[in-house]
Amino acid sequence: MSRRILYTRGVSLLEMLLVVAILGLLASTVFVMLPQGGGETEVVLAAEQLRTELATMRSRARSGEDRASFGVMVATSSYTTIKVEGATTTTLGMELLPTNVTATPAIVTFETISGRSAGATITLQSSQASTTIIVSGTGAIQ
Q: Do 123 and 111 contact (CB within 8 A), yes or no?
Protein backbone atom coordinates (compact mmCIF):
# COMPACT_ATOMS: atom_id res chain seq x y z
CA MET A 1 0.00 0.00 0.00
CA SER A 2 1.54 3.23 -1.04
CA ARG A 3 1.01 6.39 0.87
CA ARG A 4 0.56 9.60 -0.96
CA ILE A 5 1.65 12.65 0.85
CA LEU A 6 -0.22 15.68 -0.30
CA TYR A 7 1.62 18.93 -0.07
CA THR A 8 -0.38 22.12 -0.07
CA ARG A 9 1.27 25.03 -1.74
CA GLY A 10 1.44 28.29 0.24
CA VAL A 11 1.59 31.87 -1.01
CA SER A 12 4.94 32.87 -2.40
CA LEU A 13 6.62 36.14 -1.50
CA LEU A 14 6.26 37.36 -5.08
CA GLU A 15 2.49 36.82 -5.04
CA MET A 16 2.21 38.60 -1.71
CA LEU A 17 4.20 41.61 -3.00
CA LEU A 18 2.03 41.77 -6.12
CA VAL A 19 -1.18 41.90 -4.06
CA VAL A 20 0.25 44.60 -1.76
CA ALA A 21 1.33 46.68 -4.79
CA ILE A 22 -2.13 46.47 -6.37
CA LEU A 23 -3.81 47.47 -3.09
CA GLY A 24 -1.40 50.40 -2.79
CA LEU A 25 -2.28 51.63 -6.26
CA LEU A 26 -6.00 51.40 -5.52
CA ALA A 27 -5.61 53.22 -2.20
CA SER A 28 -3.56 56.03 -3.74
CA THR A 29 -6.17 56.49 -6.50
CA VAL A 30 -8.96 56.82 -3.94
CA PHE A 31 -6.87 59.21 -1.81
CA VAL A 32 -6.18 61.51 -4.78
CA MET A 33 -9.87 61.65 -5.67
CA LEU A 34 -10.99 62.70 -2.16
CA PRO A 35 -11.44 66.44 -1.55
CA GLN A 36 -8.55 67.91 0.40
CA GLY A 37 -9.47 69.82 3.56
CA GLY A 38 -13.18 70.08 2.79
CA GLY A 39 -12.75 73.59 1.32
CA GLU A 40 -15.47 73.08 -1.26
CA THR A 41 -17.95 71.84 1.32
CA GLU A 42 -17.25 74.79 3.64
CA VAL A 43 -17.88 77.31 0.84
CA VAL A 44 -21.15 75.63 -0.14
CA LEU A 45 -22.36 75.47 3.47
CA ALA A 46 -21.38 79.11 4.15
CA ALA A 47 -23.21 80.21 0.98
CA GLU A 48 -26.36 78.32 1.96
CA GLN A 49 -26.26 79.86 5.43
CA LEU A 50 -25.85 83.36 3.96
CA ARG A 51 -28.68 82.75 1.46
CA THR A 52 -30.90 81.70 4.37
CA GLU A 53 -30.06 84.88 6.31
CA LEU A 54 -30.78 87.01 3.23
CA ALA A 55 -34.14 85.27 2.73
CA THR A 56 -35.00 85.75 6.41
CA MET A 57 -34.20 89.47 6.29
CA ARG A 58 -36.23 89.87 3.08
CA SER A 59 -39.16 88.09 4.76
CA ARG A 60 -38.99 90.36 7.77
CA ALA A 61 -38.93 93.45 5.54
CA ARG A 62 -41.87 92.20 3.46
CA SER A 63 -43.90 91.49 6.58
CA GLY A 64 -43.75 95.17 7.48
CA GLU A 65 -42.25 94.36 10.88
CA ASP A 66 -41.67 97.65 12.73
CA ARG A 67 -42.06 99.46 9.39
CA ALA A 68 -38.33 98.94 8.96
CA SER A 69 -35.96 97.76 6.26
CA PHE A 70 -33.87 94.70 7.01
CA GLY A 71 -30.64 93.52 5.48
CA VAL A 72 -27.23 91.94 5.68
CA MET A 73 -23.82 93.61 5.74
CA VAL A 74 -21.20 91.21 4.38
CA ALA A 75 -17.56 91.73 5.35
CA THR A 76 -14.54 89.70 4.27
CA SER A 77 -14.72 87.20 7.12
CA SER A 78 -18.22 87.68 8.59
CA TYR A 79 -21.72 89.01 7.98
CA THR A 80 -24.07 91.02 10.14
CA THR A 81 -27.86 91.13 10.02
CA ILE A 82 -29.28 94.64 10.40
CA LYS A 83 -32.53 96.54 10.90
CA VAL A 84 -32.81 100.05 9.44
CA GLU A 85 -35.42 102.48 10.80
CA GLY A 86 -35.03 105.92 9.28
CA ALA A 87 -31.43 106.93 9.94
CA THR A 88 -30.91 104.37 12.70
CA THR A 89 -29.24 101.04 11.98
CA THR A 90 -29.48 98.29 14.60
CA THR A 91 -27.32 95.17 14.60
CA LEU A 92 -29.43 92.04 15.01
CA GLY A 93 -26.70 89.41 14.87
CA MET A 94 -23.29 88.52 13.48
CA GLU A 95 -21.86 85.29 12.08
CA LEU A 96 -18.25 84.48 11.27
CA LEU A 97 -17.44 82.70 8.03
CA PRO A 98 -15.28 79.56 8.23
CA THR A 99 -11.59 80.49 8.62
CA ASN A 100 -10.56 79.58 5.07
CA VAL A 101 -13.62 81.21 3.40
CA THR A 102 -13.65 84.88 2.38
CA ALA A 103 -16.44 87.02 0.94
CA THR A 104 -16.63 90.13 -1.19
CA PRO A 105 -17.95 92.96 1.02
CA ALA A 106 -21.50 94.11 0.25
CA ILE A 107 -24.53 95.65 1.92
CA VAL A 108 -27.95 94.30 0.97
CA THR A 109 -31.05 95.95 2.40
CA PHE A 110 -34.61 95.00 1.60
CA GLU A 111 -37.35 97.66 1.52
CA THR A 112 -40.31 97.31 3.82
CA ILE A 113 -43.39 95.64 2.26
CA SER A 114 -41.99 95.40 -1.33
CA GLY A 115 -38.82 93.50 -0.41
CA ARG A 116 -36.91 95.28 -3.18
CA SER A 117 -33.17 95.88 -2.89
CA ALA A 118 -30.46 97.76 -4.76
CA GLY A 119 -29.10 94.40 -5.85
CA ALA A 120 -25.68 92.92 -5.11
CA THR A 121 -23.30 90.15 -6.05
CA ILE A 122 -21.52 88.36 -3.22
CA THR A 123 -18.74 85.87 -3.92
CA LEU A 124 -17.59 83.40 -1.29
CA GLN A 125 -14.31 81.63 -1.97
CA SER A 126 -11.60 79.45 -0.53
CA SER A 127 -8.41 78.14 -2.07
CA GLN A 128 -10.37 75.21 -3.52
CA ALA A 129 -13.79 76.55 -4.49
CA SER A 130 -15.93 79.58 -5.00
CA THR A 131 -19.63 80.37 -5.31
CA THR A 132 -21.65 83.48 -6.06
CA ILE A 133 -24.87 84.76 -4.54
CA ILE A 134 -26.83 87.26 -6.63
CA VAL A 135 -29.51 89.49 -5.14
CA SER A 136 -31.57 91.19 -7.85
CA GLY A 137 -33.30 94.57 -7.68
CA THR A 138 -36.60 92.81 -7.04
CA GLY A 139 -35.04 91.15 -3.99
CA ALA A 140 -34.80 87.70 -5.54
CA ILE A 141 -31.89 85.68 -4.15
CA GLN A 142 -30.03 83.24 -6.43
A: no
The continuous run of DSSP H or E covering 75 comes out as none
Q: Where are the domains of the chain?
A: 39-135
Residue 46 pairs in a beta bridge with none
pTM: predicted TM-score of the whole model, two decimal places: 0.72
Q: What are phi and psi of 7, to 5 degrees?
A: -105, 130
Which superfamily does 39-135 belong to? minor pseudopilin epsh domain (3.55.40.10)
**Whether the Cβ atoms of residue 75 and residue 91 lie closer than 8 Å to each other:** no
Is 110:120 a contact under the CB 8 Å cutoff? Answer: no
Backbone phi, psi, residue 112, to 5° = -65, 145
According to DSSP, residue 141 is labeled: B
Q: What is the pLDDT of residue 36?
A: 56
Give the Cα separation of 20 and 117 in Å (integer).
Answer: 61
Task: Please name the residue ranges forming H helices in 5-74.
Answer: 13-33, 39-62
* Exposure string for 45-79, b = 16+ CB within 10 A, e = fewer: ebbeebbebbeebbebbbeeeeebbbbbbbbeeeb
Q: Write down the pLDDT at residue 12.
A: 79
Alpha-carbon gap, residue 133 to 104, rounded angstroms: 10
